[in-house]
Amino acid sequence: MPYIDWMGKDDVKDHHKNIEYKTIECKESIGDIDSQNMIIKGDNLLALKSLLPYYASSVKMIYIDPPYNTGNTSWVYNDNMDSPLIKKWLNDTVNADDLSRSDKWLCMMWPRLKLLRELLKDDGVIFISIDDAEVTHLRMICDEIFGRNNFITSVCWQGLDTIKNDAKYFSNNHEYVLVYAKNKVNAKIKGQKRTNEHNKVYKNHDNDPKGNYLLTPLNAKSGTENGIYTYTFKNNTTWTSPKGTYPRFSKSKLKELEYNNMIYFGKKENTIPQKKTYLCDMDEYIKLTTFWSYKFAGSTRQSNGQLSDILSKGIFQNPKPKKLLEIIINSITSKNDIILDSFAGSGTTAHAVLEQNKEDGGSRKFILIETLDYAKDITAERVKRVIKGYDFIGKDKTTLYEKKLTTSQVLKPETMDKISYEVNKTVEYEKQNYTKIEKTFKENTIKVTGIKDIKTFKDGIGGGFKYCELSHNIFDEFGELNSKLTFDQIAKHIYFVEFKKPVNKKTINAPFVGTYKNQHIYFYEKKFLNKDLKDLLIKHRKTKKEYKQLIIYTAKSTVSNDTLKEKNIIIRYIPYDIKDN
Q1: Residues 77 and 159 grouped into a single domain
Q2: In this structure, what CATH number is given to the domain that contains residue 110?
Q3: Looking at the predicted structure, is the pLDDT value of residue 456 above 90?
Q4: How many degrees, rounded to 5, is the angle at CA 554 between CA 552 and CA 560?
Q5: Which of 214, 169, 182 is nearest to 61 (CA)?
Q6: Residue 209, CA distances (Å) to 79, 174, 206, 213, 581 in order
Q7: Strand 219-220, strand 213-217: pairing
Q8: 304 with 207, same domain?
Q9: Is 191 within the bounds of a domain?
Q10: 3 state SS of 18
Q11: Which residues, at least 6 apart from 252, have a Cβ–Cβ distance to it below 8 Å?
Q12: 64 CB contacts (<8 Å, ≥6 apart)?
């Protein structure tokens, strides 16, 4: 498999391992105080590393919308690299004149993608928005990090719903959403829920009591010559695959379909028999295609309007539409899954999660990370208003007249005169009831819309979140455990370092940390004495808790090596053994 190389790759390849853990301190609760949703303000690289002790291998769906690196917007890569030369190079502002901006962009993305992969569940999936500027490079590093065999698809999203006539060559109306699994064998993409639009192709041509069905030919383009046969149905209709094609089903399968009344013969004698596929037998979901139109998944223009309704006009450039995130969330998550967005922006992901929970009664949890200063005033504020409700100043539109015309009707002057009269009459009658009357003719449809300027209160949809910030380092400047940490924070970190998974407990009772595969961890901060060992063994006997191994984290132990070996106990010393390995 080919690999991509770039300036700085050697310096960032293992950079995610050297990132310090920090604590995450929640400053404020919005809405439901028991909510486990979080919006974290801080460097997303540090935040992702700090989430590992709590959420490693726990996140079902990740969506990120990183900087597109087109040169239109400047950005600064500010990860704390060890090499002074690479640090100076990376910290320069990246803009259109920077010929190494792709190298810097890849340096920024690599460690973040490495950590994101660690947070994904084994059946988890990541969705990454990107455009033409870096899509090829992104594919190559994702192939390295997630594995080429875990690439699922590249969705083409029509994010622009108007033509850019000032474009030099083509109006670029699309972006991409790359989709990778942590382990594709386990990933399940549900697709999209069926709608009446999907179902309208199913008909009932012969009053079949089982209901509507879709007709499928009995022949296929591929097959083998020795698989060709002639079949005579009970009504004496004879069928064989047309020349150049092959039977889609074996002879025995065709006989079974006939027995189950799943063959349609038509009303004329020369109708070719076809297989019935019943709507009632179809799954609730259908497969998503790899092209998402703006009508299906929304556009940036529509999302600008949505955000303006909630906050104010022009407050954020090109937010992703809620519809896009709703499609992604609905396609992959179940009601109790965790969703992560580490380039949170305007907070669309959280909004979509809350809407989905309201729709199906789910308890999905979101974790949003935003590095920039607008994390509180835009990201969190939007989600707060969606939860609690907000004053809405906008437009209420009512269709007053609508008529779809055929081409022949459009070409008849007398027909158009009549319609023109009806339209003008409607406008004259309704104009005092609306701020504005809008007339449109699109796709052979004449439409008159009444528009009212309105000011009202939009009810909140409920839910809650905690607004958090990155706080203390796990280790102080001397490499010792930070004295400001609680036992709970240290214990969760110890458990993760030992087992590379989060402890499955909300509260931890000192000195017990947790257990995994019958290995029990304890934390004695100052020292572990013979008396502590005696008390521990008595406790295990009383509770009849057998153990495979006891793992003790402590600064000092006075228990002899022979005793430790006899009792199958391992001592790990703080701070050295608590550091990520």
Answers
A1: yes
A2: 3.40.50.150
A3: no
A4: 70
A5: 182
A6: 66, 45, 9, 11, 65
A7: unpaired
A8: no
A9: no
A10: helix
A11: none
A12: 116, 126, 127, 128, 129, 341, 342, 343
Assess whether 252 and 210 both reside in one domain: yes
Tokens read off for 234: 């009970």
Question: How many domains, the chain?
Answer: 4
| Residue 463 structure tokens | 């839910």
Does one domain contain both 398 and 544?
Answer: no
Q: What is the 8-class DSSP label of residue 169?
A: S
pLDDT (tens digit per residue) in 129-141:
999 989 999 999 9
**Residues 551 and 430 placed together within one structural domain of the fold:** no
Continuous segment of H or E residues that includes residue 181: strand 175-181
Instruction: Kindly report, residue by residue over 463-490, the tens digit of the pLDDT.
Output: 999 999 999 888 888 888 888 888 888 8
Q: What is the dihedral of CA 525, 529, 531, 533, to 10 degrees?
A: 80
Distance CA 423, CA 350 (A): 43
Residues 6+ apart with CB under 8 A from 260: none
Answer yes or no: is 410 within a domain: yes
Provide the pairing of β-strand 549-554 with 569-573.
Answer: parallel
Q: Which residues pair with 392 in a beta bridge?
A: 456
Contact 308, 334 (CB under 8 A): no
Question: Distance (Å, rounded) from C-alpha 194 to C-alpha 198?
Answer: 6
Question: How far is the C-alpha of 331 from the C-alpha of 179, rounded, in Å?
Answer: 12
Residue 266: pLDDT band by 50, 70, 90 thresholds?
Answer: confident
Q: Is the pLDDT of residue 431 over 90?
A: no
Question: Among 389, 414, 442, where does a domain finish?
Answer: 389
For residue 75, the model assigns a pLDDT of: 54
Beta pairing class for 464-473 and 38-41: parallel
3-class secondary-structure state, position 112 = helix
463 within some domain: no
Shared-domain flag, residues 269 and 295: no
Helix (H) or strand (E) holding 152: strand 151-157
The token duo for 452 is 């009212």
Token duo for residue 317:
């450039």
For residue 540, the enclosing domain spans 485-578
Cite the DSSP H helix spans in 298-452. Answer: 300-310, 322-332, 348-360, 381-388, 407-410, 413-430
What beta strand segments (E) does 362-444 contain? 365-370, 389-404, 436-442
0.90 cut: is pTM over it?
no
Paired residues of 477 in beta bridges:
none
Bridge partners of 451?
397, 436
**Is the same domain home to 59 and 108?**
yes
Q: Is beta strand 274-278 parallel, antiparallel or unpaired with respect to 238-240? A: unpaired
CA-based nearest residue to 225, from 245, 249, 248: 245
* Pair of tokens at residue 484: 């400001």
Same domain, residue pair 349 and 413: no
Distance CA 169, CA 83 (A): 42
Assess contact for 428 and 322: CB atoms under 8 A: no
Convert the pLDDT of each residue in 73-105 to its tens digit: 655 555 555 545 455 555 555 555 555 778 888
429: amino acid identity, one letter: Y
513 within 8 A of 521, measured Cβ to Cβ: yes
Alpha carbons 531 and 539: distance in angstroms, whole number: 12
Residue 93 confidence (pLDDT) = 53
In a domain, 472, yes or no: no
Q: Measuring CA to CA, how many Å separate 120 from each of 113, 124, 400, 422, 498?
A: 11, 5, 50, 59, 19
